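Lesson 9: reading folded outputs for more than one chain in a single document. The general rule is that every protein is listed as its sequence immediately followed by its structure tokens, and records are never interleaved. Here is the first one.
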Amino acid sequence: MPGPFPGPRDLNGRAARVTFACMAAQMAMGAVYLRGPLAPDVLAEFGWSRGDFMFAATPQTAVTALCSPLAGFLTQRYGARPVVTFGVVWLGLLFWGFSEMRSLWHFFGLSIGVGVLVASVGDVAVGAVVSKWVARGRGLALGIVYSGSNLGGFLAATFGAGVLAERLGWRHAYLFYGLGLAAVLLPIVATSVREPPAGYRPPSLSVGGAVESNASADIGIPLREALRTRSFWLLWSALFLFYVYFISVTAHLPLYLTDLGLSRPAVASSYGLMVGIGIAAKLGFGLIADRFPPKAAAVGCFAVVSAAAFTLLGLGAEPGLLLPFVLGHGIATMAQNVVYPLIVAHCFGTRYMAEIYGVIMLALFPGGIAGPVFAGYVHDWSDSYQQVFWIYALGTLVSLAMLAAVRRETAPDTPSEPGNGGRAQRRSAALP
């Protein structure tokens, strides 16, 4: 049963400023969505196959996954501000590079840079710092933060691809959108992203009174202990299957819709709606997660992911399914950013969350690479996505079952210190 809505008691003052600055940092990650709607133009100019194009994009996923633990380590040691500030500066330089792209190997190298960008301004650093500032209302705060990537993606698809590329060409779209967005975001991020001061406790914890497990105090088990728990590997495996589906479908969707006969403006608007709806989705799921247990919110989110995956299977035969798919896929896959850090904090606490979540994000490496490349080459061979979409839809059901099996691995009110012998106590207190 859901509890009473706790209200965003901690989301004010400096905490609110940090939250919205982290949302701005996530807009830099959303700029990466510009590549999807511009893919038909790029392929038309260079004559690359879809399989080769997706293969050349694989460094992004690999580098994002491999750099996520590093982002977690740097955030744990130096704070989130230098990590995300670097990412915003890198955005401008990177998109300038895309505007000068001349070969497939050039694209391959730039994809490495995209991976660095996503790891820098992605979920790990901003999620960890905001979780420290906000306890009661944490779901809403994370929803606000992660909606930034959708706002950036919506602007990239509608303004970058739908306006700049239409009028000036895809090269100038990369150049002007990347440099302009970086110039706007840099002062916001550099001046407002801050770690809490030493000894800080969110107001809802300082005044006493219980809070739900998704708004726990600064407790938790270290990474080496988390690696020995069942929940860690269930969360890792479920995220792997999610990325196989999400990254593959998101990468190929503009090409698939083009195959179905949609014009570039129609593809851009559909893609923009899919990304833009994530703003409302993340805020909505954030509010839901503040009222329901984190596990219930995560399972509900992944149930919608699976429903959208099966809707996609009928899109080729029934064009009327496009809107339901775009809405379902956009809502659920974008809300994943909110529910996953919440369930990680629920299972392991917040003290070592940056490091633990960073290692869980390694699931992006095999999942995000295998999915789009496999789909690209299967399409080149069979001239169809249908077989791949069936495999990925079934995978979403498996990931849903895995999330349903996770449990809390640390007692909600007992801080953990490495080597204090408290693991047995925490495990005995684990909740289903």
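And here is the second record, again sequence then tokens.
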Amino acid sequence: MRIESLDHARQLDAADPLAAWRKEFHLPLHEGRESVYFTGNSLGAMPKKVRAYLETELHAWQTYGVEGHFKGEHPWKDYHHLFTHAAARLVGAEPGEVVVMNNLTVNLHLLMASFYRPEGKRNIILCEGGAFPSDQYALETQARWHQLNPDEVVVELVPRAGEHTLRTEDILTKIAELSDRLALVMMGGVNYYTGQFFDLEAITHAAHAVGALAGFDLAHAAGNVPLYLHNWEVDFACWCTYKYLNSGPGGTSGVFVHSKHGDNPNTFRLAGWWGHHEGERFLMKKGFKPMPGAAGWQLSNAQVLSMAAHLASLEIFDAVGMEQLRAKSLKLTAAAEAALMELNTRYPQAGFRLITPQDPQARGCQLSILCGSNGKALFQHLENKGVVADWREPNVIRIAPVPLYNSFEDVWQFASIMEEGLQLLA
């Protein structure tokens, strides 16, 4: 999809059924005008109604004090229930398979305590090479917790020579090769660096075929790409909410546990008060009886103020729906890709190229631009001209034209500023 002119971009925006949602967000300003905010893959823009949702809970705290757990518009005791159905729809789950709690890496550790249970020679964790550092640290320390050497049991998948992304057939081949030594496949749903969206269904089925489990960090996938975790038979997953889900810095996290595990009270989990059966929670008795489903992994009561921001955003996602968001995302990303490819042809001396998969089904809305020697200077030019993008060492500019609040005019403006920068650096 190619945008021919600024007028053409504005025509596309006028015909966009989701265009009005942009008005529901605060976009950072640059020299008095809205910036081209292309970094929803790092921190999503603020929904305008977040302030009112926070004020509601602050008012409840002010008015009721501790009784806010039982009084007010949303009594805090049951606050996590407010997310159940919308979060399930977001990731393609049954309501009992999801819960909102904690932060992402905390949840990853809690889930791995349940689902990485090395036994004998079945002790390998398979992940993608160059996973986000927090995932790497979690895998390393989980191995050490079991008195295993991470250099021996954490196996990383790397692309073929001269390539930047993994081929699905290579992932599946490695799973089959590891066979009865494989305990767990634990990968990102979308790779943070390249933007590659992995075939989670095929990976899960391959893991199960050799007797292993499959779990995913969906930090860059939730709210970005369609997910069908229940039907894909994924064992577990977790995600943050501050990136594509627009729920604020350090926002809360979501958890998925497939019902075949969550509804089994014998599935091991690290226990906490809020994971205990809610009908008996306030009896204060010893002897952990887990809530059915993902709720049984809860440790503590809800982080209400952080969750209020997530509630405001999640309601928007639920109103729009991932199908509509994905349809627009494909168009926006294709338009940005076409513009970059045209610039690459016209300014070959710049030496940049896209390392995100060309197949739209193998990516979300992120495009990763592998730069030449002037990459940092080009990034600085974009920033100086009001494009909020993202630099990742050693030499990648990431942009993410997200469908909720980005426009085709944003894509046009980005391409124009990018060209200006290429001319200056030529």
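What the second record shows: The mean pLDDT is 97.
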